[in-house]
Design a protein that fits this description.
Mean pLDDT: 89
Helix content: 40-55%
Order of helices and strands: HEHEHHEEHHEHEHEHHHHHHHEEH
Oligomer: single chain
Number of helices: 16
Strand order of the largest sheet: 2-5-6-1-7
Low-confidence stretches: none
Radius of gyration: 23 Å
Number of strands: 9
Distance between the termini: 44 Å
């Protein structure tokens, strides 16, 4: 019999391993059911995908059709069209014969090719002879609305890694075509989210971009320690182990309440614990987590300039703002005041630092911060 894993990280959580997010779940579910477009913005691995997956299940239980797709691997408009088409058709049924019939019904202007996977009863992909110079994109983008009207239901389209469209050739024109079609769909709501916060913010929060004010923007914050406390203690009980409130608080302090890292460190501590978790167990689990992440961090740091490294050292010393001040520049050898903007932008683009809501600069990854402090 397969053992139940107490903590889940690296993949979307679900069921008992999904914690908190009651308010966000209720709000997003209302948006799904009432047809409100939603943009989810947050740092990486905070739990966007897990939240969307949970709400999608709840919405589907209320007869809402939900299409989910990840466009990270899409490099062209054609890739997007095929991914979009496949996900929308998959949302219409769980049976292969119905999928095929829906392809025939809703792709009357195309000659789509259906490719079966190793599990033909449960998975397939659709490919179209896409031509960006005709109206085939508009036809595909209208597919959810046509299906929703035919079925008399609400349709929700969830697109992960949406910032990837910013990499497409002539991206702004493509974004305009998407919005032109999507904004007129009465029976369809879109949930757009991605792992690169600064790029998502650019797409949706800047006035000169097509998706400005496309829907309600939700900023997904970290789960507070008081929510992690009962969750981690309960999960430790699986296998008959225990952990004190004080040690959970220390664990959350190490991960700065970062969802994925909190679950990962809790898992390593759970493995380290014989009966009752101790501070020594936590220190060993903390070092193991840093060691496991070290190869990635080395790769991230290798390409940094001396100015960028000095900037990070200034942050470690407690500097959070006012980097352009003369004494700060001289103390940490940052070059010139004009150089500060270039340094910040480069580190933000590399997702090593982020700008907090209060305007302070902070490390994007709390474990990278611990690792860098040890170098």
């Amino acid at each position: 019999m397969k053992k139940q894993k107490p903590f889940v990280f690296g993949v979307a959580t679900s069921g008992d391993t999904f914690t908190d997010r009651e308010d966000e779940t209720k709000r997003l579910l209302n948006n799904f059911e009432y047809g409100i477009n939603t943009i989810l913005i947050s740092p990486r691995r905070i739990g966007k995908t897990s939240l969307v997956n949970k709400v999608a299940e709840l919405a589907q239980a209320e007869s809402v059709l939900v299409a989910k797709m990840d466009i990270f691997a899409c490099r062209t408009e054609s890739d997007f069209v095929d991914t979009f088409s496949t996900a929308v058709i998959k949302a219409t049924s769980t049976k292969m014969d119905e999928w095929i019939q829906n392809v025939k019904t809703f792709f009357t202007r195309f000659s789509p090719k259906i490719s079966l996977s190793d599990d033909p009863l449960h998975d397939f992909s659709v490919s179209l002879e896409y031509n960006e110079h005709n109206h085939s994109l508009e036809d595909v983008l209208s597919l959810p609305q046509r299906i929703a009207e035919a079925r008399g239901v609400q349709f929700v389209v969830c697109i992960d890694e949406f910032q990837q469209i910013g990499e497409f050739q002539d991206s702004l024109t493509f974004q305009k075509r998407l919005r032109t079609v999507w904004q007129h769909q009465d029976n369809v709501a879109y949930c757009l989210y991605g792992s690169k916060k600064h790029l998502m913010s650019t797409l949706f929060l800047k006035r000169n971009y097509p998706f400005f004010k496309f829907g309600e923007t939700l900023f997904l914050n970290k789960i507070p320690t008081e929510k992690w406390l009962p969750f981690i203690q309960q999960r430790f009980c699986i296998g008959g182990k225990n952990i004190s409130e004080e040690l959970v608080q220390q664990l959350c302090s190490i991960t700065e309440n970062h969802s994925s890292y909190t679950q990962q460190l809790a898992w390593l501590l759970w493995l380290q614990t014989s009966d009752v978790a101790t501070e020594e167990d936590l220190l060993m689990a903390r070092q193991q987590l840093i060691d496991e992440c070290s190869p990635l961090f080395v790769q991230q740091a290798e390409g940094l300039t001396s100015f960028q490294l000095n900037f990070l050292r200034a942050m470690l010393a407690g500097q959070k703002s006012n980097f352009s001040q003369k004494d700060v520049i001289q103390k940490y050898k940052l070059g010139t005041s004009a150089n500060i903007v270039r340094i910040k932008n480069a580190l933000i683009k590399r997702e090593i630092i982020d700008i907090a809501d209060n305007g302070h600069i902070e490390f994007s990854d709390p474990i990278f911060k611990l690792w860098f402090a040890m170098q």
